[in-house]
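Work Package 3 (structural annotation) set out to generate three-dimensional models for the target panel prioritized at the project kickoff. During this period the team completed the workflow that converts sequence records into discrete structure tokens, so that structures can be stored uniformly alongside our sequence database. As a representative example, we reproduce one entry of 301 residues exactly as it appears in the project archive.
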Amino acid sequence: MTTTKHKITSEVMIEKDACSETNREGSNSAVSKFFFVLPDYMRRSHSHSSSSSSSNKNGQSSTTSLAVDEDGDLVLDRKPATEAAITIEHSIATELKLVGLQIWRGALLLADYVLSHPELFRDRRVLELGSGVGLDGIVASCLASEVCCTDIDCGTGILELIERNFKRNSELVRAKVSVCELDFLNTDWSPKLRSKLDKIDVIMAADVIYDDEITAGFVATLARLLDETPARAAYVALEKRYVFTLADLDSVAPMYEEFRRCIRRQKRDWQVTELSLDFPQYFAYQRLKQLVLLKIEKKTR
């Protein structure tokens, strides 16, 4: 994470090969392609959908036009059929409260997990909390039957941004998609959101642990969802960020530790498991030891 004049830039934008073909749109926004290796089970369907025209459950269609050079010769796409890309509109640098407008390593870790475990997401109804720019929701929509992406609309137009990013990637989307506002600090949920929550099977979130108040709200929201909806498990990806403190005379990860304290304060009958990260890596990023993927589930009685 790079900080400049009170603004923060994700390491993903600095790492070589994490994304490519970034086109800036204004001083602080961009559209980037995040390439990933297609799992074997996706290669045949992706090759078919990319050949000419495709449609998804939203009724959106995508047509691939044939390009010719100045001599009239056909320009062939040389990209291997084993690779695809997700196109994302995002910010380059933001204040801390707007970090959801960027892509962070936790999102790429969660995307890898979804692609590595299709049996957990295929034909399921998935709720994403703190969707940000929608990358993980798009990945889940490759497998799920329904995806509901949520975030807080604090005047940045983030909900519309998520919708635009889904449209940019319509050739990958097979799920029915909805975008709803959900504020971790507001317990008054809209009728539209409630209608979606009544049907969810799986909850997921990435990179939502960066502020103590928001963390407490996130855990309280998670507790309510696991109590009131059919979902039995949530997958939460994040990166531990260490700082050296004089009080501890050691490097500690205060945001992560507060997250675990918030979980304990709920006193719910949950099983919290830190999952192994030995699953395949499809996206290009540094899979650091500080990255964490937790499964939080209601215990079976």
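The chain has eight helices and 18 strands.
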